[in-house]
Design a protein that fits this description.
By secondary structure, the chain is α/β, with parallel strands linked by helices. The protein has three domains: about 100 residues, DNA polymerase, domain 1, CATH 1.10.150; about 70 residues, Transcription elongation factor, GreA/GreB, N-terminal domain (Helix Hairpins); about 80 residues, Chitinase A, domain 3 (Roll), CATH 3.10.50.30. It is about 45% helix and about 15% strand. It is built from eight helices and seven strands. A five-stranded mixed sheet has the order 5-4-3-7-6. Strands 1-2 form a two-stranded parallel ribbon. Helix 1 runs antiparallel to helix 2, helix 2 crosses helix 7 and helix 6 packs antiparallel against helix 7. It starts with 10 loop residues before the first helix and ends with a strand.
Length: about 270
């Protein structure tokens, strides 16, 4: 399928093109996985702005501290989306090659059925998901009415409003299922119970010194669900996040990143 969009294409538009290229019966889980990637990266961004280092970071965030069947499935589906984007000229760089499934994760997926991966959430993120869940559930009635009105048109061969309403309901139901799954396995961690100077936990704000450049950087360590590199929110499952967890001010950590090994000193934890 060739891209039907002219000019720079946003991430959310590229996802739409990808989903439209699939058979409708394949939309369910595939849609959830690529939409989650779009939310992580920022759906309003242009495809050409995506960087290989970000794709690598998404892989680390998705696998988490233990990965799991669903994490492996998500990475594989996002790889397919990125390959589709490159094939259709939406990106110039082969981004899919920077998203890898660790061999140990692939083997464990084949050998043993793992326990569901846990989602670590802050109270704020948990509250936002509850609000979104109620909003999505409230949309069911109005969308159903749209479907009934559109279906009243006798000519259903080219009934665009009916198709649009059904697609909308599918998106809403997909998101409802995803939120319910997250809430079912969520572990809520409140950073307010931590005192200044204690070890780094999910929810901690950390001030670091880059021991190579001397530059100071600040991060908030969050769950993979809340990670947003543009807001300096890093997942506790990312390379930097994993290195920081359980460390205290004064300690030094070494991190393997796409730019090579880097060393940081923890200056403050709040």
């Amino acid at each position: 399928m060739e891209s039907t969009l002219s000019g720079p294409v946003s991430l959310v538009d590229a996802v739409g093109l990808y989903l439209n290229s699939l058979k409708k019966k394949d939309h369910g889980s595939k849609q959830q996985h690529v939409m989650r990637f779009a939310r992580w990266a920022g759906g309003d961004r242009l495809m050409k702005e995506l960087k290989p280092s970000e794709i690598d970071q998404f892989g680390h965030d998705t696998m988490g501290l233990g990965g799991g069947d669903r994490a492996v499935e998500r990475i594989q589906e996002v790889k397919r989306f990125l390959s589709f984007a490159q094939k259709n000229g939406l990106t110039e760089v082969k981004l899919a090659q920077h998203l890898r499934v660790p061999r140990t994760a692939a083997k464990s997926k084949r050998a043993v059925r793992q326990e569901p991966e846990r989602e670590v959430l802050s109270p704020e993120a948990h509250g936002q998901l509850l609000e979104e869940l109620e909003e999505k559930r409230a949309q069911r009635g109005p969308i159903a009415q749209e479907i009934r009105r559109a279906a009243a048109d006798k000519d259903v061969r080219e009934n665009a409003p009916l198709e649009a309403a059904r697609e909308h309901l599918g998106l809403v139901e997909s998101r409802i299922r995803e939120i319910e799954r997250i809430l079912e396995i969520a572990v809520i961690v409140d950073p307010a119970v931590q005192g200044q100077g204690e070890a780094v936990r999910i929810g901690s704000q950390v001030k670091l010194e880059d021991l190579t450049s001397g530059r100071e950087v600040r991060y908030t360590v969050v769950s993979a669900l809340e990670a947003n590199p543009r807001e300096s929110k890093i997942s506790g499952a990312s390379p930097v996040g994993q290195a920081l967890i359980d460390k205290i001010p004064g300690e030094e950590v070494e991190v393997s990143t796409p730019r090579g090994k880097q060393r940081y000193k923890i200056l403050r934890v709040t």
